Amino acid sequence: MTQQQWNSVDDYFTDLLTPPDDALTAALRDSDEAGLPHINVAPNQGKLLQLLARIQGARRILEIGTLGGYSTIWLGRALPEDGHLVTLEYSPEHASVARGNLARAGLDKLAEVRVGPALDSLTALAAEHPEPFDLVFIDADKANNPHYVEWALELTRPGSLIVLDNVVRGGAVTDGTSTDASVRGTRAALELMANHPKLSATALQTVGTKGYDGFALARVSD
After folding, report:
1. What is the DSSP string of 67-122?
2. 1 pLDDT higher than 80
3. If we measure between CA atoms, which residue out of 196, 186, 110, 107 comes closest to residue 146?
């Protein structure tokens, strides 16, 4: 199959199952106008995140990697009125765009954007001894993926779900000799998921408007 066919199938699924939404459309527009990279999740992937959060019955969500807040909106809409979402963004400029997008979507009271290197933000968050998160979505710099998984374990509970995005790396994830930091970080995170006694995990390949990619899912056990 070709990229054009992948795009056509994604367009069909999106048109059928994720109808147009003003807040999400505006979030993409404002992100584009602000010069943010086009690396947000696809609409059908955003809907998947929302469904996973609802299936999980999530009240508290942690997102590592905000960008313009597009995936944050999908996740935030899965929360109950007393829910809370913490999203971590390295760039102050990206965080500003995200806050505007979240406010327009009516989620600024539920979603908190924290700015700075994610590992620093996670250290500070853990020091607050927060209530455990029910779902963690990891979509930040891939070199630090194993550290993010470790922090996700620290900040969750038995039964929580960890979602790790962009794990296929165009197929490069199979190359154990790669010197690419993103590939090495992704492989290390997957190996951690495979070997940790408190994680049960799987990973899936995907194709679509975002090309050839995939994600991993891991459930925290007792």
Report:
1. TTSHHHHHHHTTS-TT-EEEEEES-HHHHHHHHHHHHHTT-TTTEEEEES-HHHHH
2. no
3. 186
